[in-house]
Amino acid sequence: MNRKEVLACYTRAVAQHDGIKIKGAKSTYTAINGNMFSFVDDINRLCLRFSEPRKAELNEMYGASDVIQYGAVMRGYVAIPPEITGDEFVLQELFVESLGFARRLKPKATKRKS
To answer: Which superfamily does 3-104 belong to?
Structure first.
């Protein structure tokens, strides 16, 4: 999928949830309570955050892959394969699950410009 297609799928998934908005001009992401839980990476993959055990399950179930940024694996993040990104029903289920996980995380202070 190209970036435009991935962003369209991502936008539709996010639109189903009041209070969740896509942020970032260059790096497209969502966050709740100061915790990022989804983003589209620079190679046009939709990445969602889960617990480590759930991440391992998804990697096995869907052939999802780890998310590597700046040479390091991002703990808890899964790169959703294009065939799943394009399946609105499955994507919505995974997005809801990722959002639920993020809601259980300890809130983080956000950095605001003075």
So the answer is: YgaC/TfoX-N like chaperone (3.30.1460.30)
